[in-house]
Amino acid sequence: MKFKRLDSTSKTKLPRHMYFSNRVLTCSWILLTFFGWGHASSLPLSCAQDEEQLVLYCWPGYVPSTVIKAFTIETGIDVLVEYYSTNEELLRHRIAGSRYDLVQPSDYAAEALIKRDALQSLRHDRLPNLKNLSPKFRKFPHDPEGKYCVPWLAGTVGIVVNTDRVQEPIESLSDVFSGKYQGRIVALNDPREWLGCALCHLGLPVNDVTPSTLEAVRKVWEDWMPQVKVFDSDKAAKVMLRGEADIALTWSGDAASLLSESDAYQFVLPKEGAHQYVDFLAIPKDAPHLEAAERFINFILRPDISLMISAAIPFTNPNEIAHKQLSEEARKNPASYPPGNPDLKTHRAIGEMSEDVEKLYYELRYGAVDNHPK
């Protein structure tokens, strides 16, 4: 997240659905035709659960169809995809022992899954292409030995300004939410990102979530939220291009696409601090197609496939070999690869407080907790 494919640049929030291969549909037709509805469960497992199959649970728009097609052509393994729209939605699922072979959690969600003992330990001897990862993406606070997670892409949450329509300098979250730009802002619809922004604004650690800090966050949100015209985690670039907003608080991948569209767009990391996220691939414990999952991970770690991913979604590429082969334009995009040494924060799992964060967010966004989209 090629720069001008705005439909593929973000963690798109779409209705959850699955893509079924012809092979799976054919198997289902055989079950119904020859055995009837009532006897499908008694069939041999080899038909009901095709070994030449991979079930991926991921962010929509975040795994290019070109990559899935190339994997299937090369391996003969059909990929079925189901989507979630937030890490919190992923965490509400009991993924261990489920139908999923691969999941795509962000850093703090991966940490929560590790603490639940929900992830399979990686067999590094089956993943020789791990050697292609940059040293900066080999050790993480939640998984210091790389035992459970493999980086997919990374990015930041920052500010995009249309300088044709906003002449004043925008350097901080305080500038964005000063009141001058009410009704001209598009922002992520993500409780954890809003939490991190508010805590940075307050000068508090982004993982310091207690009842008292959450009360301070409430006051910030009550001031900020009415100033936002559009809450959307996947269409900020389109909203900006249509002229419906002049400032975006969004993923760096969306920002990179806007910067490639026009020199009028400027990307800023808030001076209060910004979240740097890393999204991973991980294998749920007792995944039904373990070897297929390992083959997919090793496949996307190849430089040629990693470049295919970056061509579709210009986030930060953790593959050192692929990064060297990116175009100069891509490597110099300040949204994808921020220059200097910005103050970047890492989100960690916050346990049961995450429920309180969601409850407060949806209470303020929708007026009642029960009204928010599930």
Blueprint (SSEs and pairs):
Blueprint: H1 22-35, H2 45-48, E1 53-58, H3 65-75, E2 78-83, H4 87-91, E3 102-103, H5 107-115, E4 149-162, H6 173-176, E5 185-187, H7 191-202, H8 211-224, E6 228-231, H9 236-241, E7 247-251, H10 252-261, E8 265-268, E9 274-282, H11 290-300, H12 303-312, H13 320-325, H14 328-331, E10 344-345, H15 353-366
Helix pairs in contact: 7-8, 7-15, 8-15
**How much strand content do the residues show?**
5-15%
Radius of gyration: 21 Å
- What structural class do helix, strand and pairing data support? alpha/beta
Look up the CATH topology of the largest domain.
D-Maltodextrin-Binding Protein, domain 2
Instruction: Quote the average pLDDT.
Output: 87
Percent helix: 25-40%
What's the number of extended β-strand segments? Answer: 10
SSE order, one letter for each helix or strand: HHEHEHEHEHEHHEHEHEEHHHHEH
Per CATH, which architecture of the largest domain?
3-Layer(aba) Sandwich
Q: What are the main properties of this structure?
A:
15% strand, 15 helices, D-Maltodextrin-Binding Protein, domain 2, 7-stranded mixed sheet, disordered C terminus, alpha/beta, 374 residues, 3-stranded parallel sheet, disordered N terminus
